[in-house]
Amino acid sequence: MDAAAACCLLLVLATTTISSVYAYAQAADGGCFRKEREALLSFKGGITEDPHSLLASWNGQDCCLWSNVRCNNRTGHVVKLDLRNNFLLDDMMVLGYPRPHPGMHGKISSSLLALHHLEYLDLSGNHLGGAGVSIPRFLGSLGSLVYLNLSCMSFNGKVPPQLGNLSRLMYLDLNLWWCLYDENNLHVEDISWLPRLPSLRFLNMNRVNLSTAGNLVQVVSMLSNLRVLHLSDCELVFPHTPIVHSNLTSLQMLDLSGNWGGTLNPSYWFWDVGTIKHLDLSQNEIAEPFPAAMGNMTSLEALHLGGNRLTSLNPKALSNLCNLRELTLSGNRINQDLPEFLEGLPHCAWSKMKMLDLTYTNLSGEIPKWIDQWTDLSILQLSFNQLVGSIRREIGGLIKLDKLYLDGNQFNGSISEEHLGSLVNLEELDLSYNSLNMVISSNWTPPFKLQLAYFPSSKLGPRFPLWLKGQRDITYLDISDAGIVDHLPDWFWAVFSNVQYLNISCNQISGRLPSTLEFMSSAMPIVFDLNSNMLTGSIPQLPRLLVELDISRNLLSGPLPQNFGAPFLGDLLLSENSINGTIPVHICELKYLNVLDLAKNHLIGGFPDCAEVSVGTKKLNAKFSAEALILYENNLSGDISFLQGCPELIILDIGHNKFTGRLPTWIAERVPDLSYLRLRHNMFSGSIPIQVTQLVYLQYLDLANNRISGFVPHTLANMKAMTQDHPEGLNNPLWSSYDRPEGHSEGYKAPKYDDSLEVVTKGQYLDYTSSLIYMVGLDLSCNNLVGEIPVEITSLVNLKSLNISHNQFSGMIPETIGFLGSLESLDMSCNELSGGIPSSFSSMTMLSKLNLSYNNLSGRVPTGNQLQALIDPASSYIGNDYLCGPPLPRNCSGPEVITGGGLDEHQADTRTFP
Q: In the chain, what is the straight-line distance between the N-terminal and C-terminal CA atoms, in Å?
């Protein structure tokens, strides 16, 4: 190096050193630049809540030492501010129950504009927006930004075009997935600012409404550096006219799921992008085979097509996809034989495929013997198809499998160690709902560590499967209805102390529950389903994070605990045990409770009045938050004033107890959402208040076997849920109970609640579960009601069951009774009704059970239509000495009256008797 060059280099180094020294001198008095420190403190001042203490360390002079702040080592300027809410999902769904506003609260201060060197800003998952608050336009003036994440921040309104001023931006995330959707509502009116971000490599606008964004495709096609593009659920509708070839020469990931329905034009822009490795077109209602143009996408590694309406795949379109690693087709109706379908996939990809999801694709046939040629498979999902035969031992040759889902098919035969012994990487195994027999030695030690083990309706018993003892990593375990007749092993609760979902229901498992389950250490919501076994003991202290407990139909005894120890309980199902004592006031403190079922126990006393509960000298002013309260068949007593503290109730069943008093006149005001009200077999007295008919959602009312007297209100027509074919109803709390977690993407979801609610219809007790929503009925039997049957009762056209028997009703049956065309069961027996049977009875085409016995009815029994197909028709009319005609033995004299069944065709009955 010559002297001049050396001199030049020294000058540059000296200048750089002086610049750095000057920069640090600027910050020397406080450890960082004063203006930047003040800007950060001003931002902190705009934060009203900080539940995760993201800003707790923001004091002192050196802001470069504060948590979530990073400064440039050379210049000392603040270059990174990472305040993302890492607990977003936990906050959003606190143990399954949405919390309204996760993360930090407040507003974004414009003081951030003083951070001229800020390159990285992540505020995602915090509630810094709100109703009417849009993304601040001033963020578009942070000209040094390279990374900006504003996802899930409760912003509403238009995405500001000023973001187009961030010309250095490489990463932009406005994603609204995993957010509280009603609080995050962004839209784009003009997308022309996007090409002003020439360096953009990552763009996520999932769930941002782009329906009015203009020609999005042409705009996006100008971003030549873009590598990742997420536009899921953006209400996009791509035009049927082909788009010009794009300039997306770097694009590798494209997510267009959940957008348009219709056809796929072979000239669509993305078919021409040969660099795409990951393509997601799921949930788009695509109904036609994929075009041959897909064959141009030779770089494709992941293809997600689930939730469409495909009936086949075009093998030619796939033949060149030799790099394919992932294929999901769940929810399509492929309607093929499984071996035939697999043969149609590119053979050059067989040994490279890592994930194959064919859930709910209506595939049939057997698993082919050559399945072991797919040697790289780590995820195989064949759930809920029509596959038959035995599960081949060759599946044990897929040694890289970590997830295997074969549930919901018609497999039979045995599963042995030979099937599973080589699957050393297996973490999730679901064999549910087949006819499989697990023949596994009690001393076998599996080579894998399962995290999910689902075997309901598989035969594991009669002995408890001891090979599970070593599976301490299991978080989801379901061995329900598995034919186990055995004692619960001593090691059971310790081995599965980390479970989030535990289901051993519908076996004959015996043993005593431990006195406490507080040691269950999962950091996530916990569900226990132990119903229909032979477990003994009392209700233990529960894990703090338990959200559902079902121990119904066991042999539990003793009182309920004064404190369950599980403040997040959502469903508490303890019916059909021998639990005694009173219901503790602690029930009022369970603010997430959705369903409480204590039916068929030995409980005494009243139900706590949550509106009046006090702790010490302090009144809680609590309310009972559940939507379903089921207490039938206990020895409970007192009045029902406690309902004033139960404003959310939809289902109330307190039948077969000893409650007393009059039906409250405030019921429609205090419990307005009642849909199912069952008070039968108590000691209620007084009349039916008019206010009961103001319960517009009420579709099932059972007041039978009480001491209710007086007249039936003529305002029955106000009960809209009984008068409208499709009333606007409320959520069914039994249906919305916790679903079994599923590991596969399109998992089967069924209502969890299967405890029975009794309904009396057709003269017998019938059990309803979550399907109760379809039952519409009115039962006023076995009371002291008097007067005529109000004609308004015939306006309840949605009724399926009507029972007014064993009262003192008099007068004639309303002529318009035939309006009740949905009735399946009608009982008016044991009253003082007189006159003829209206011919409109033959209009009730659904009627199968009719009882008019023991009244004073006279004249000819109507004929025609459904009346000829009644259950035991002769007994329907006994005890009415002046009725005649079939099916009765007494003949009528005079001309026969033919009833056509129409309500407009009433003819006078001939009342001449022999």
A: 138
Q: Which candidate, 614, 570, 576, 610, places its Cα nearest to that of 594?
A: 570
Residue 291 has pLDDT above 80, yes or no: no
Give the Cα separation of 396 and 392 in Å (integer). Answer: 8
Is 28 a residue whose pLDDT tops 50? no
CB atoms within 10 A of CB 684: 20
Write out pLDDT tens, residues 756-769: 555 555 555 555 55
Q: Are 820 and 842 a contacting pair, CB within 8 Å?
A: no
Closest of 425, 432, 476 to residue 451, by C-alpha: 476
What DSSP letter does each residue of 87-142 carry, written as one string?
Answer: THHHHHEETTEE-SS-S-EE---GGGGG-TT--EEE-TTSB---TTPPPPGGGGG-
Pairing of strands 78-82, 69-71: antiparallel
Which pairing describes strands 557-559 and 578-581: parallel, antiparallel, or unpaired?
parallel
Tell me the average pLDDT across 644-664: 95
- Tell me the C-alpha distance between 253 and 204, whole Å: 11
User: Can you tell me the distance from the alpha carbon of 269 to that of 528, in angstroms, rounded to the nearest whole number?
Assistant: 50
Structure tokens at 265: 């034009």
Report percent pLDDT > 90 for the chain: 69
Q: Find all residues with CB under 8 Å of 7, minimum gap 6, and list them.
A: none
CA 363, CA 360: separation in Å to the nearest integer?
8
Query: How far is residue 251's CA from residue 263's CA, in Å, rounded to a whole number?
Result: 23
Percent share of the chain, pLDDT over 70 = 85
Q: What are the tens digits of pLDDT across the range 570-587? A: 999 999 999 999 999 999
Helix, strand, coil % over all residues of the chain, rounded to 5: 20, 25, 60
Give the span between the Cα atoms of 241 and 218, in whole angstroms: 13
Judging by beta carbons within 10 Å of its beta carbon (0-12, 13-18, 19+), is residue 385 exposed, middle or buried?
A: buried
- Contact status, residue 795 vs residue 720, Cβ threshold 8 Å: no
Per-residue confidence (pLDDT) for residue 760, from 0 to 100: 59
Three-state SS for 886?
coil
Nearest to 326 by CA among 361, 377, 282, 292: 377
Cα–Cα distance, 729 to 908 (Å, whole number): 41
Q: Decide if pLDDT at 595 tops 50.
A: yes
Structure tokens, 517: 């389950």
Can you give the pTM of this predicted structure? 0.86
Q: Taking phi first (over 0 means left), then psi (-120 to 50 degrees means alpha), and beta for anything else, what does residue 885 get?
A: left
Distance CA 290, CA 877 (A): 66
DSSP E strands in 836-901: the ranges are 849-851, 856-860, 882-884
Judge contact between 490 and 467, C-beta under 8 A.
no
Q: Which of 640, 540, 648 is nearest to 594 (CA)?
A: 648
Short-list 762, 903, 759, 758, CA closest to 826: 762
**Omega of the bond leading into 664 within 30 degrees of 0 (cis):** no
Residue 432: is its pLDDT beyond 50? yes
Q: What is the DSSP string of 369-400?
A: GGGGG-TT-SEEE--SSEEEEEPPGGGGG-TT
Rounded to whole angstroms, the Cα distance separating 825 from 780 reads 14
The closest of 396, 391, 389 to 375, measured between CA atoms, is: 396
Confirm if 174 and 149 have CB atoms less than 8 A apart. no
Going from the C-alpha of 159 to that of each of 155, 231, 291, 813, the distances in angstroms are 9, 15, 35, 66
What does the DSSP 8-state code read for residue 419? H
Check: CB of residue 599 under 8 Å from CB of residue 576.
Answer: yes
Among candidates 180, 236, 168, 182, which has minimal Cα distance to 205? Answer: 236
CB atoms within 10 A of CB 336: 20
CA–CA dist 847, 876 (Å, integer)? 12
Q: What is the pLDDT of residues 800-819, one digit of tens each?
A: 999 999 999 999 999 999 99
Tokens describing residue 908: 């006078």
The closest of 535, 467, 543, 551 to 498, measured between CA atoms, is: 543
